[in-house]
Design goal:
This protein has about 475 residues and is an alpha+beta fold. The chain has helices at about 5-10, 35-50, 95-105, 125-135, 160-165, 175-200, 220-225, 230-235, 245-255, 270-285, 310-325, 325-330, 360-370, 410-420, 420-430, 430-460, and strands spanning about 20-25, 60, 75, 80, 85, 90-95, 115-125, 150-160, 205-210, 235-240, 290-295, 305-310, 340-345, 355-360, 380-385, 405-410. It is globular and about 60 Å long. The N and C termini lie far apart (about 50 Å).
């Protein structure tokens, strides 16, 4: 008799593409505004996808965000430049009653990896761009010398099975199999319903996309998952004596105070501009054998002159630079770039988990600048949920005030699994500075969000803190 697979084996035994392109169409950028098309297509999906799914899909909606009086159904991503053109993206999120049941039965900690999203994004021909640069020895941002540039609108989503095999990997064999079946069914429903709406309610010529060499991303393999243990991919913090609702409310209240600090005259105005200037210049450093210089002494900046002899010198000094520039901020519950929380909503049959979605314009643009087909991996997610195993032995029945948890799906995990093609392209294009920066940026994002969580915990009057060790 063949023994059943273990939980980890069951979770990662099959390679999975990170994204699934549902449909794409080619358009003439000289004749049509991609942002206008994205708005049109997103509105059509909002109006029709629930009905097209026969009520199986529910659009996630929230009134709780930086503007709490405005209902939020669509997440609009900051524009980003890809291959010399500004690209755009929007996202709607959908949910099923079965998703609520799985969150309730399998555990609230998994809520941070969902709901499912559908993104409408603009993109150049990434494969043509890559092949053109390889053949012509060009660099990113250069136009195709043949003049035959193609522009696309994509409708895409994160592959639900990729979530199952990365985040839900610690399930027992039975639960894993059951959730995998659910993910396959959700994929079928979203794909079928989305295509039905696009064909019936838009005038564009959509092509179903079952296999995309670039836009579906590079397969997530067993070693990719094993390289990031679950406690590092989805770290959590137990908070004694405070309910999830209390902690989440204090967190969102604290995040509201952050953006004004970066406005003219604000406490962090020059900090934000300094960070943006330095890292933008670093990403533009194309010859790692030549010295890098960035003068941050003049207004509106408030920093030093930054100098590196070459790439090796940069790598050696990078930890010290981060510890000097960011660590004092992080340990005061502050950040180097403005963050906002897009919205907060409940998941589970009884709202067992509060999910809070986070976005920073600067970091999001850096991520989508590698190709807007990565948008389904955004935004950053936090989960707040009451503890299932009360740490207070005096309780007969465990009220929420006994303890709660906060967890995140780290940017480090998301980039390692969902942005493999971006890292590969940087290597192929001989961009070692950008590849190194791209490797380090996710950890900076993890620290930034941890600092914000700590600000919320301080506001809640609880002593627990997310760890912020010195950068090594």
């Amino acid at each position: 008799m063949i023994a059943p697979l273990t939980a980890v084996q069951a979770a990662v035994s099959t390679d999975q593409k990170p994204f699934k392109v549902i449909a794409k169409m080619e358009y003439d950028r000289s004749q049509h505004d991609p942002l206008e098309i994205i708005h049109q297509v997103t509105d059509v999906l909002l109006e029709n996808i629930e009905e097209a799914s026969n009520g199986e899909l529910n659009i996630v909606e929230s009134y709780d965000g930086m503007e709490p009086d405005q209902p939020i159904k669509v997440l609009h991503f900051p524009p980003a430049e890809v291959n010399g053109e500004i690209q755009y993206g929007a996202q709607i999120e959908v949910w099923t009653d079965n998703d609520n049941a799985f969150i309730t039965s399998l555990g609230a900690k998994y809520g941070v990896a969902t709901p499912w999203n559908i993104c409408v994004v603009s993109s150049p021909d990434m494969m043509g761009m890559m092949m053109g640069m390889i053949g012509g020895g060009g660099s990113p941002g250069e136009t195709d010398p043949s003049g035959d540039k193609k522009d696309y609108i994509l409708v895409t989503m994160v592959n639900p099975l990729a979530i199952s095999k990365t985040v839900y990997r610690d399930l027992n064999w039975s639960d894993n199999s059951s959730f995998n079946r659910h993910c396959k069914n959700v994929t079928r429903i979203i794909n079928k319903s989305t295509m039905a709406v696009l064909k019936a309610d838009t005038d564009y010529r959509w092509k179903a996309s079952y296999s995309e060499l670039i836009y579906n991303g590079l397969a997530i393999k067993q070693k990719d998952v094993k390289n990031i243990p679950l406690d590092q991919a989805m770290p959590s913090l137990y908070i004694a004596g405070a309910s999830a609702d209390t902690v989440a409310s204090n967190y969102t209240d604290y995040v509201r105070t952050i953006p004004p600090m970066f406005k003219p005259g604000g406490q962090l105005e020059c900090v934000g501009k300094t960070v943006t200037k330095l890292f933008t210049d670093l990403f533009a450093w194309m010859d790692p054998n030549m010295p890098f210089d960035c003068d941050l002494t003049q207004p509106p900046y408030c920093g030093p002159v930054v100098h590196f002899d070459n790439l090796d010198d940069f790598k050696a000094k990078f930890p010290e630079m981060i510890n000097q520039m960011f660590m004092p901020l992080w340990r005061q519950n502050l950040v180097g770039q403005p963050w906002k929380y897009i919205r907060r909503f409940g998941e589970g049959e009884n709202n067992e988990v509060n999910v809070v979605e986070m976005c920073s314009k600067f970091y999001a643009s850096m991520a989508t600048g590698t190709g807007f087909h990565h948008a389904p991996a955004l935004p950053c997610m936090l989960g707040f949920y009451n503890d299932e195993n009360c740490a207070n032995s005096r309780c007969v029945t465990c009220p929420p005030s006994c303890g709660s948890n906060v967890n995140m799906l780290t940017a480090s995990a998301a980039f390692a699994w969902f942005f493999k093609d971006a890292a590969m392209m940087m290597d192929m294009m001989n961009m070692p500075v950008q590849a190194f920066m791209f490797e380090k940026f996710p950890l900076i994002i993890n620290y930034e969000i941890s600092a914000l969580v700590n600000g919320g915990l301080q506001n809640a009057g609880v002593p627990e803190r997310m760890p912020l060790p010195l950068w090594q």
